[in-house]
């Protein structure tokens, strides 16, 4: 079993910090931002946690949140489906006993359940509903002065990204901690690898290649008592207005690695292709099953990404960064550099999912806020622009992507079980407009 290591990545400027610190001081708490006075800072206060979105990832986040700090309790839960909330609660009670004894009046069900939870007296909100709801839920939590853990991706379209950026700015002004589900940022081997890259160990970066190929995921057969919206909500992954398409929902980890390696420098533009070869059945909604995209950073520097999901194919999840002095490489447990400064990570490992929450709750206790807002929004927009260039068949600039007014789904306040919403048609490159 990997040794558990508590990682703290507090401070508002990771890029500057990593470049200055290097590997030797990357994890030194003495170098972290001390922060400002925090109205929530009470060393002996029991922190009340609320979970919005009670699926597998949300349940896992709640387990990790309670593991991170002994003086926490699960105070409230919210989901659109009562059965999902109930099953999640049973698992959490088995894991954490009395600390997860959520009162019936603190179990909220429905599309407005998130707001009822935010208003229930919680201190920390865990946001794990489908990504299409994330901007609204995140903004509401920040407006109410709550610390937030919010899963990736942070939005499914540019209007959502802008809403998240606005809320993240408010969080900074309020000294609220916000930690995103881009967990690679909290993984010790990847931190060490990126410290080497940003410290110049491979020289000037000339290209980045990322590949993520995998198999099919879950699907829930329609039940007799489900109407159309219930069916789509149960299968949210296959509707881009709920998930963003799989390149946004899952490949965002890879675009985040690229952004990290580039010192948070965003591409000037992107172009690419994609389509549906495997997911041809109507049950797969309107998402694609493969993408290939090129990012253009100017001066000849390119980033190339490919991803697909199908049964029977080979699997791979890797990032390779080519520099003038050598290459940096990540795949599975391998974190290496070959070239002038050959190196291989052989240090401690950690549970990066747990470390996210360890860092979040430590920052709350210290009054030293973490703010993953701009980083998470930019990495998500990199995934969104990747989808949009493939959907449209057009080259799209970063500025055009950020300012796009194309919204994939209805306003969150419009949702109800009676809502009739088919969503966008399956995209046809050359015809579909994304800006």
Describe the structure.
The protein is an alpha/beta fold and 435 residues long. The protein contains 14 helices and 15 strands. The chain has helices at residues 14-25, 56-68, 82-96, 113-118, 134-143, 158-173, 188-198, 228-234, 240-243, 246-249, 252-261, 352-366, 373-392, 398-403, and strands at residues 47-52, 72-79, 107-109, 124-127, 147-150, 178-180, 205-214, 269-275, 290-296, 302-309, 316-323, 326-331, 334-339, 343-344, 396-397. The strands form 2 sheets. Strands 14-13-12-11-7-10-9-8-15 form a 9-stranded mixed β-sheet. Strands 3-2-1-4-5-6 form a 6-stranded parallel β-sheet, with helices on both faces. Strand 9 (290-296) and strand 10 (302-309) form a beta hairpin. Helix 11 packs across helix 13 (373-392). The longest helix has 20 residues, at 373-392. Mean pLDDT is 91; it is low at 1-42. It comes from Arenibacter antarcticus. This is Gfo/Idh/MocA family protein.
Number of helices: 14
| General shape | globular
Could you tell me the mean pLDDT?
Answer: 91
Class from helix and strand fractions: alpha/beta
Strand content: 15-25%
Rg (C-alpha, Å): 21 Å
Sketch the major β-sheet.
9 strands, mixed
What would you say about this model in short?
By secondary structure, the protein is of the alpha/beta class. Helices cover 34% and strands 19% of the residues.
Task: Name its key features.
alpha/beta, six-stranded parallel beta sheet, 34% helix, 435 residues, nine-stranded mixed beta sheet
């Amino acid at each position: 079993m990997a040794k558990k290591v508590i990682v703290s990545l507090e401070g508002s400027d990771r890029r500057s910090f990593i470049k200055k610190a290097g590997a030797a001081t990357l994890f030194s708490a003495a170098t972290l931002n001390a922060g400002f006075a925090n109205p929530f800072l009470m060393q002996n206060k029991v922190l009340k946690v609320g979970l919005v979105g009670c699926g597998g990832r949300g349940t896992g986040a709640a387990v990790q949140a309670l593991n991170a700090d002994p003086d926490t309790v699960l105070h409230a839960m919210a989901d659109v489906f009562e059965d999902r909330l109930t099953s999640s609660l049973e698992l959490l009670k088995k894991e954490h006993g009395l600390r997860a004894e959520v009162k019936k009046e603190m179990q909220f069900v429905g599309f407005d359940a998130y707001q009822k939870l935010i208003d229930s007296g919680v201190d920390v909100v865990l946001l794990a509903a489908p990504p299409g709801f994330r901007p609204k839920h995140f903004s509401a939590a920040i407006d109410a002065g709550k610390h937030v853990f919010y899963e990736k991706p942070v939005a499914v379209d540019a209007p959502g990204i802008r809403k998240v950026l606005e809320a993240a700015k408010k969080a900074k002004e309020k000294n609220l901690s916000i930690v995103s589900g881009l967990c690679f940022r909290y993984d010790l081997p990847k931190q060490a690898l990126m410290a080497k890259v940003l410290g110049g160990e491979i020289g000037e970066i000339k290209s980045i290649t990322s590949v993520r190929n995998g198999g099919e995921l879950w699907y829930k057969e329609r039940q007799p008592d489900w109407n159309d919206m219930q069916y789509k909500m149960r299968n949210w992954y296959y509707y881009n207005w709920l998930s963003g398409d799989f390149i946004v929902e899952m490949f965002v980890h890879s675009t985040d690695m690229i952004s990290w390696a580039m010192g948070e420098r965003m591409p000037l533009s992107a172009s690419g292709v994609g389509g549906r070869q495997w997911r041809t059945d109507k049950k797969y909604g309107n998402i694609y099953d493969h993408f290939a995209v090129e990012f253009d950073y100017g001066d000849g520097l390119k980033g190339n990404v490919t991803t697909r999901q199908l049964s029977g194919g080979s699997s791979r999840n890797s990032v390779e960064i080519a520099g003038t002095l050598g290459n940096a490489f990540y795949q599975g447990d391998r974190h290496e550099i070959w070239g002038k400064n050959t190196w291989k990570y052989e240090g401690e490992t950690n549970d990066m999912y747990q470390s996210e929450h360890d860092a979040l709750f430590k920052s709350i206790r210290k009054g030293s806020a973490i703010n993953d807002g701009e980083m998470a929004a930019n990495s998500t927009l990199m995934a969104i622009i990747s989808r949009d260039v493939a959907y449209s068949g057009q080259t799209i600039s970063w500025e055009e992507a950020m300012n796009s007014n194309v919204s994939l789904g209805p306003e969150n306040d419009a949702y109800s079980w009676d809502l009739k919403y088919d969503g966008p048609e399956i995209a046809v490159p050359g015809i579909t407009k994304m800006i």
